């Protein structure tokens, strides 16, 4: 997959059946790993303490009935038939729903949003084609209320962040319970006094190996994921069919909802508490929506309805059929998965179960990396190092800091709990909280984005919200029995996210209030009152208009700067991807002879940022194309959402080098270049691009020989080319923030302690630009906010 072009393959939904079936097969390993391994621990967690398996079989049949209807109503009805349709240009997950609401109701939390961003193709595209329909009276009033009240906007953001934090908590708990449950099968294969010394070390070794191998990426072994899950599903369904016909062919009668009533009537409060264990049967359902960007709606639906759903139902029915004829288990091993496996098959099934648990854990870990990247792009998480482990598979990323934090936390809960009961209580609360957040956000999407009746949204919330609230309350009752873990983890991550977001907003407000007037800058004359040296100076700023304070701070203390000045703003917009042809917004500051430009680079929250060489090439080419098109024709311009009356520069949409076939081209020199070729500063006609062999950083762009280009424009392009040869310097602000005098205690703690701690211990502004270390100059400033 090409980084710039491959990101958009998911937007094309008209695929052949062969492609759809291939994607459905591949989705087994990525999407359904977590959901498929739930039979390992559901019955064991349900019958841990709250209820007991009696001779009447009312408990086991009641649990089976709850499992069947829970899987049918939540993953099948809610996610497959409703939630999957709420994709954000092919992307899914909590932030996809929040992004949809940001665009339809203007509740965007990003401070640097512009009117020009609303002209993006992805911004205007509606996945179900309802964007042009008029809103109902209630939808219009709801939209107006959300746009007017900042408190509601902040509540919406916090709600999305709570769901995100619970996904991160699930990334800690799912590997622990999955691997531990898979390894626990050794209990039936060795003496009682020995298995306790095998389970915990084996689980820890597997978990350490799983996290230690993350930096290699999954593309090397990813082709094994789908076969492993497929083999696992065939295995549990075959064992389920065997147990049904061999032990109790009439177990299908337990699928009737009547058995749920009998179960609750007999067990009462104990049965209600056991719902926290039954809840684990839908662990991983959210992955169907969260991983939508890697596949298509149809492929995920086909995989679930044709294979995953029937396999899980057969597996749970088979376990219930076996347990209905076995009321006394001859060991301390409580009711679980392996006890229903024929004795001769236990070791092979154990191996397959461990492999399936690793695959399921890998899926949630990758999903955690992905959602943290989205949070960071939208300014809700500190800057972290993001490593793309594959140039061909979209979304394969690795975040070192998060990986090791997850590993330490995962090992801590595994060693601390040492049983599936408390691990299940913790995991269940994390899972059901994410589902509740999705239900709440979906109700708003139904009204604001789909323009459906408010009664449909109310029915959606009441029906699914009641089911999920029932499970949520059952999990919350077990707060002191393990359910406190996801709450504690989520609170810590939520506190960090809110603190970072608050500090980011305060920093941007300070930049806006203290920016330098463009008129003042132009009044200094063509040389700006300083010495202009050869090269290009990129002044990185968060502002989309005006001149940042760091520039005046720099030139005041060192009165010299580069011959070409580019005020560069790299920002994220609330869409999953920005197309290459809309990547850059380029404008001019002052007259042509000043050689000052403003360039706004727009990325979606799932876009891949290029490395420094490619970025520099695209940036210089976009400026050159802007110069050429400005002179050749009247370029289509978009006025920026100016924050100051004195900044009246206009911006033009310019794509990357690959998006225009004629005009300015980027030419990479290699050691194999002919020494007789024209020099870098010569003007050459565009020629067909050849495959590059060994690329160096020295780059030139090619100016087409055409009489349409005026002499003044050609000289400006030549000067830009020569400045590029002189080198590119990145000027960035290294800001220290302090709460201003008179600030309250909470603000002082948030800024002086929380934000500064996160800033010092996370990546700096170079992370967003991937700028080379040797060419970067940081200008230190203290902001009193």
TrEMBL record:
Biased composition regions of type Basic and acidic residues, renumbered to the chain: 668-679
Family annotation (InterPro entries): K+_transporter, K_trans_C, K_trans_N
Any GO molecular function: potassium ion transmembrane transporter activity
Top-level taxonomic group: Eukaryota
Topology versus the membrane: Multi-pass membrane protein
Location(s), subcellular: Cell membrane; Membrane
Pfam families in the record: K_trans (PF02705), K_trans_C (PF22776)
GO CC entries: plasma membrane
Main localization, broad class: membrane
Compositionally biased intervals (Basic residues): 686-696
Keywords, in A-Z order: Ion transport, Membrane, Potassium, Potassium transport, Transmembrane, Transmembrane helix, Transport
Chain's role: Potassium transporter.
Family: Belongs to the HAK/KUP transporter (TC 2.A.72.3) family.
Protein name, per record: Potassium transporter
Organism: Cardamine amara subsp. amara
